[in-house]
Hints:
Layout: E1 3-10, H1 14-26, E2 32-35, H2 76-97, E3 107-109, E4 112-116, H3 119-132, E5 142-144, H4 147-153, H5 155-158, E6 168-172, E7 176-178, H6 180-193, E8 197-199, E9 202-209, E10 215-221, E11 229-238, H7 244-251, E12 260-271, H8 274-277, E13 283-285, E14 299-305, E15 308-318, H9 331-335, H10 338-350, H11 352-362, H12 366-376, E16 385-400, E17 404-408, E18 411-415, E19 421-426, H13 434-445, H14 450-460, H15 472-486
Parallel strand pairs: 1-2, 1-11, 2-8, 4-13, 11-19
Antiparallel strand pairs: 3-7, 4-6, 5-6, 9-10, 10-11, 12-15, 12-16, 13-14, 14-15, 16-17, 18-19
Helix pairs in contact: 1-6, 1-13, 2-13, 2-15
Amino acid sequence: MAEATDVVLVGGGIMSATLGILLKELEPSWEITIIERLNDVALESSQAFNNAGTGHSALCELNYAPLGADGTVDPTRALGIAEQFHISRQLWASLVEEGKLTDRSFINSVPHMSLVMNADHCAYMHKRFDAFKTQKLFEKMEFSTDRAKIAEWAPLTINGRQESQPVAATYSAEGTDVDFGSLTRQMVQYLTSKGVKLKLNRHVENISREADNAWVIKTVATDNGDNPLTFRSRFVFLGAGGGALSLLQKTGIPEGKGYGGFPVSGLFLRNNDEATAAQHNAKVYGQASVGAPPMSVPHLDTRHVDGKRFLMFGPYAGFKPNFLKQGSLMDLPRSIHLDNLMPILHAGWDNMPLTKYLIGELRKTKEERIASLLEYYPQANPDDWELITAGQRVQVIKKDAKKGGVLQFGTELVTHSDGSLAALLGASPGASTAVPLMLRLMHTCFPERAETWKTRLQELIPGYGIKLNDNTDLAEEIISHTAKVLGIHH
Length: 490
């Protein structure tokens, strides 16, 4: 007998938790069920050491505002990402104010920096700063080529560096570090206290549609493949990170045809020594090497996880064919179907430099990885660092009329034409933009409810529907208020 529920959220990560919170606030009477294949929530991409935790606000990520062919820097994309992060922050602050999140330690003030180390990159950095400083969301950013000043901001990056090497940096004191694992767990804890059903250790075997348009989700226990449980629902969200593609393919919806996925593993060097971590309070992002994908931008990060401070450096790319860290080595081969074979082949052909880059990364020795670290932290002791595997990222491959197939580095929302099912594919900037992504999903899937939801959404997100960058006074008021509530620097 199938268990009836209004909403099924597949995957116990930050996306499902965010959508669950929004729907519970807007439609308290709706019955919601979260299905997770592991024995707890937030163990895959939302787990702290499985993602960058940067709180992507485009303050330091140079790939969001590259140097244009005409020699100028356009801040538009960076501003879009910054706006989205502020939307997420506003919801979190409201949930703290209303007592729905009780522990603010999931977010910490950690300045965001960009650091470059040759004359051409220094010239670009100055242009980027000039393009950013006139924008409200970036107005507090500082720029310097003075080594003493940069050493004040991040001493480990300057101490021991050759005097002859040109350096330039930007510094944004309002940057943050976010533990999305802690945030997800708190959100889900609140949801279960409000009657949301959490089904752990459940693998989704099949998703099909009945004649009455209800979706039927068949699950089995992950530990023994037995103990079947079936759910019937009018709305399904596939928010299972890298696992969402395989689930989308099970639904058979026409909108999901032609999508493929290319998995990339992230590896990081982690320093667990608290004395070393205490000397560095910043996320320092550099320039990606030529031919490297945007997700490979090197960064030396301060991380706050479970009340302890760490230093992390990376990422280094790895390759495994599984779509989830705790997935199957058959994930990639099983995902290749007739409808996505040509897009995958075309995207592969067009991205040969990426393939070469990955092969080069896979061949790297520990000494070569440490050499990259020494570029950003010249006096690092190799013995203090351990290599850890972060989460799996599955880059989206989609059909393209001109090229046949393209590889994307962002996120892709795929929705059924009647709004009854949605899937989120892709990776960065991911978690940081969870709230605006889920708002877009809700407007796409429930357009008839947009008007009735508006008032409550504006209570939860005071800047809802407004571009803060274009509204100086309102931006100042909202940003300072959320910072105060969340206990972070403004």
